[in-house]
Design brief:
- The structure is a single chain.
- With 363 residues, this protein is of the alpha+beta class.
- It has 2 domains: 191 residues, Heat Shock Protein 90, CATH 3.30.565; 141 residues, Ribosomal Protein S5, domain 2.
- It is 33% helix and 24% strand.
- The strands form 3 sheets. Strands 5-4-3-6-2-1-7-8 form an 8-stranded mixed beta sheet, with helices on one face. Strands 9-10-13-11-12 form a 5-stranded mixed beta sheet, sandwiched between helices. A two-stranded antiparallel ribbon has the order 14-15.
- It is globular, with a radius of gyration of 22 Å.
- Bound molecules: adenosine-5'-triphosphate and magnesium ion (MG).
- The site of magnesium ion has 5 residues, from α2.
């Protein structure tokens, strides 16, 4: 076969292959866009596990009618303009690809009214043909409708699980986003049934109430508030005490500059910090936020943006380990069997010595 340039619709479908794995991936991209737009309230409406319909409506900054076609164009973004911006990115999105990818594998509509605009406008994308913008009704903010996900890529559709399972992934995702954005109200419905309503949390008590609503009263009753600063890094949030430990590692939320990430340096530091207070096979529960200079983290390392690379991995590892180890050490008294076991295995005095990281991946 001779070499040929691929048509844009196929380029977008290939890009969608990397980012849009299932309905929950669409929800992630849409809700992150709403958060980037400064929304205070986000409504997520799901039908048939997100396969039939995903509708995300926000009261954010909106999009000017003339910009709507660009919003669904590939490699078009309002969030960065130069490579330098990419190094300091403070928004969740920056690739300018999500909507183009989603629109290429669904029946897609976007209605928006920019702040102070007299009227809203709507575009639709059908079989990679753009229709609109046309005048529409919408309050300030945006609504995105994604219908019949993967209708034109049946191979992808075959990988989808039962509607309940797909909805479960969506609900998990909303939990993760809602934990990081207590100032935003969320409502999630599935097939017309309200599954979650979370009011905006104005103060610390309301934040903990949201954590309790999302992680359970058990966690809220057995957690410690963390607030630690060091030169250039801040760690805050809640860590579960041994009594809140789980058989599965399913309540571990770690955010870097507001972005939920899975990171082996982080996981390792946390596992080490808990190693003296948890039985083997038990997993800690936590909701932790690490904030640092965006220049210290590369966010452009994963298409779905759920991994990052720290420039100073060792520094981050040691800061996390130290902060949590100290916090947890103070909690041992009165913890029964766990306490006894911890006492039998005293803390290594040399935790900061280089060989204490022998098991650190990549070290
Ligand atoms: N809910 C929204 N409210 C306001 N503007 C939006 C919204 N959704 C998308 N946009 C605009 O459309 C653009 C394209 O969105 P898209 O999600 O495709 O790319 P991105 O967010 O810039 O980057 P990424 O691909 O990493 O998500 C955004 O840069 C933003 O300007
Ligand atoms: Mg985006």
């Amino acid at each position: 076969m001779s070499i040929r340039a691929l048509p844009p619709s196929l380029i977008n479908q290939i890009a969608a292959g990397e980012v849009i794995e299932r309905p929950a991936s669409v929800v992630k991209e849409l809700v992150e866009n709403s958060l980037d737009a400064g929304a205070r309230r986000i409504d997520i409406e799901i039908e048939a596990g997100g396969i039939r319909l995903i509708r995300v409506r926000d009261d954010g900054a909106g999009i000017a009618a003339a910009d709507l076609p660009l919003a669904v164009a590939a490699h078009a973004t309002s969030k960065i303009a130069s490579f330098d911006d990419l190094l300091h990115v403070a928004t969740l999105g920056f690739r300018g690809e999500a909507l183009a990818s989603i629109a290429s594998v669904s029946r897609f509509a976007l209605t928006s009214r920019a702040r102070d605009a007299a009227q809203a406008a709507r575009i639709e994308v059908h079989a990679s043909r753009l229709e609109g913008p046309r005048p529409a009704q919408h309050p300030e903010g945006s609504s995105v409708e994604v219908r019949e996900l993967f209708h034109n890529v049946p191979a992808r559709r075959k990988f989808l699980r039962a509607e309940r399972t797909e909805f479960g992934h969506i609900d998990e995702l909303i939990k993760a986003l809602a934990l990081a954005h207590p100032e935003v109200a969320f409502a999630l419905t599935h097939d017309g049934r309200t599954v979650r309503t979370l009011r905006a949390a104005a103060d610390e008590d309301a934040r903990l109430a949201r954590v309790a609503a999302l992680l359970g009263d058990d966690f809220a009753a057995h957690c410690l508030r963390i607030g630690q600063d060091t030169a250039g890094m801040r760690l805050h949030g809640w860590v579960g005490l041994p009594a809140a430990a789980r058989a599965l590692a399913d309540r571990q939320y770690f955010y870097v500059n507001g972005r939920l990430v899975r990171d082996r340096v982080v996981t390792h530091a946390l596992r080490q910090a808990y190693s003296d207070v948890l039985f083997h096979g038990r997993h800690p529960a936590y909701v932790l936020f690490l904030d640092l200079d965006p220049a210290g983290v590369d966010v452009n390392v994963h298409p779905a943006k759920n991994e990052v690379r720290f420039r100073e991995q060792r520094l981050v590892h040691d800061f996390l380990f130290h902060a949590l180890h100290e916090a947890l050490a103070g909690t041992r008294a009165g913890q029964g069997a766990v306490h006894a076991r911890a006492a039998a295995q005293p803390l290594r005095a040399d935790w900061s010595a280089p060989d204490s990281h022998a098991a650190w991946p990549g070290a």
